[in-house]
Design brief:
Layout: H1 6-9, H2 21-31, E1 36-39, H3 44-48, E2 58-60, H4 61-76, E3 85-89, H5 95-105, E4 109-112, H6 119-129, E5 133-137, E6 139-140, E7 143-144, H7 145-155, E8 161-165, E9 174-175, E10 203-210, E11 213-218, H8 219-233, E12 240-243, H9 250-263, E13 266-269, H10 275-284, E14 289-293, H11 294-302, E15 310-315, E16 332-338, E17 344-348, E18 358-359, E19 362-363, H12 368-374, E20 376-381, E21 384-389, H13 405-408, E22 411-412, E23 415-424, E24 430-433, H14 437-444
Parallel strand pairs: 1-13, 3-4, 3-5, 5-8, 8-9, 12-13, 12-14, 14-15, 15-16
Antiparallel strand pairs: 1-2, 6-7, 10-11, 16-17, 18-19, 20-21, 21-23, 22-23, 23-24
Length: 445
């Protein structure tokens, strides 16, 4: 299985192909159960301020499946309805992907709240979706997030349950940490979903552009986005991913979380960004894929670290200079475009062509074979970049309630406004950036 590609590993028959992330986990738990799948950050004890120095948590695919089943069983016993929202504010710890998968398995919708948000910002997000349950970590960098969630629950009558994961969970918050033990109950019976009165929602998870703009991601968009990254980055089960983007971000999901489960690879986590820890991790293990902002990639190069074979620079501004990568011609280099928090697109790095290239109204990919899988288009409307396609939220499927009204305001004749300035530059390309249109045109000229 070590070199198995995605298509062959999932079989040729559509009925044999898992169609959700949590079913992908079950697939790999069966075919690669003992393979290492998920590893905690090496500095987790220090981040939590622990004195007991617990061993680093690591999960095989079989252990992951067991933990997801245990947690899904607990969540189902709460009596929530299928499709209910659950707010999740967690760091890049191993419990975070397990929580997302368990919520999906229990028929609930994780709403991924950035760890940096204040209680006031979280309150604004609650006004849209009114989550029925809250889950957060305990002590982290001298902040106890479970205490914050407890305060939020007192102030919002729609919240029925508050749960905590990790170290020093606040009093009054249900501590579910024991459910995540990687050595506990590997032979447990599989989770059986209870009957629900309402129909199954295809909504997989929710991210946010800002506290009042939730972005829905259904199963089709999740799998399309993951498949795009797996094929363009040529990921397989033999890869070892270093994931330093939080799952509350589109790059963290599309470039790491989805491809990890779709390829059956191993993922080590990093709580972003601690350069000294990053240096320790790079020297201790041999990673094959890493995606990060340009300044982080530049740090790796300047400190002569063992750089992964596949490097993706997460970009937003096409007018900013790209770090000098000509000295590393043997690497597989990519620009990873975060398009306004709506979607992520990998583009093979071309040092002799302008980055941020959109030819013929379509996002360019390195491979003609894989280009059709992206199903993403770009158009300039009122000097702003608008996108549409299978990896982005489908405006026609958005609910008509107040839940998505802020996102609906960004729709122009079916195109989603990324919030990025754009104009048609030389060679039929689109230049992007957070600057004004005049500044972009000046740079381009």
């Amino acid at each position: 299985m070590s070199n198995t590609k995605l298509g062959s590993s999932l079989g040729d028959s559509p009925s044999n192909r898992p169609d959700t992330l949590e079913r992908l986990l079950t697939h790999f738990a069966v075919v690669s159960g003992d393979k290492m799948a998920l590893i905690d950050p090496s500095n987790r004890n220090r981040l939590e301020g622990r004195s007991d120095n617990l061993p680093l948590r690591a999960y095989s695919f079989k252990a992951l499946e067991a933990a997801v089943n245990r947690l899904a069983t607990r969540l189902s016993a709460l009596g929530l309805s299928r499709g209910d929202y659950v707010a999740l504010q967690m760091p890049n710890f191993s419990e975070t992907p397990i929580l997302v998968l368990a919520l999906m398995r229990a028929g609930l919708v994780p709403c991924l709240i950035p760890l940096s948000w204040s209680n006031e910002e979280i309150t604004h997000s609650f006004q849209r979706l009114k989550p029925k349950a809250l889950i957060s970590c305990g002590q982290l960098n001298e902040i106890n997030y479970s205490e914050n969630m407890r305060e939020l629950a007192f102030a919002h009558m729609h919240v029925r349950f508050v749960m905590g994961v990790g170290y020093d969970i606040a009093e009054g918050v249900s501590d579910i940490t024991p459910l995540f033990d990687p050595d506990e109950g590997l032979e447990n019976a599989p989770f059986v979903a209870p009957p629900f009165d309402s129909a199954l929602s295809d909504l997989g998870l929710v991210t946010y552009i800002d506290p009042i703009t939730p972005v829905p991601h259904d199963s089709g968009q999740i799998l399309s986005s993951g498949l795009l990254h797996v094929l363009e980055l040529q990921l397989s089960a033999s890869d070892h991913i270093l994931s330093a983007y939080p799952l509350s971000s589109v790059p963290g999901l599309a470039a790491h979380f989805y491809p990890w489960l779709m390829s059956g690879s191993c993922m080590t986590l990093h709580q972003p960004f601690d350069f000294s820890v990053l240096q320790e991790q790079m020297r201790a293990k041999s990673f094959s894929y890493f995606a990060a902002p340009e300044q982080v990639i530049d740090y790796l190069l300047r400190n002569d670290l063992p750089v992964p074979q596949k490097l993706a620079i997460v970009r937003r501004d096409s007018h900013l200079p790209t770090c000098d990568l000509d000295v590393l011609p043997s690497l597989d280099l990519y620009d990873l475009w975060n398009l306004g928090g709506l979607g992520s697109v990998p583009v093979r790095y071309q040092n002799d062509e302008p980055t941020g290239l959109f030819a013929d109204g379509r996002i360019c990919l390195a491979s003609d074979t894989h280009q059709q899988l992206c199903l993403a288009g770009a158009e300039i409307i009122n000097d702003r970049l608008h996108v549409k396609g299978r990896i982005f939220p489908d405006p026609s499927s958005l609910k008509t309630s107040m839940e998505w009204i802020s996102l609906k305001k960004r729709i122009n004749d079916g195109w989603l406004d990324t919030g990025l300035s754009a104009f048609a530059g030389p060679n039929n390309c689109v230049l992007l950036g957070g600057e004004t249109l005049e500044e972009l045109q000046k740079v381009a000229s």
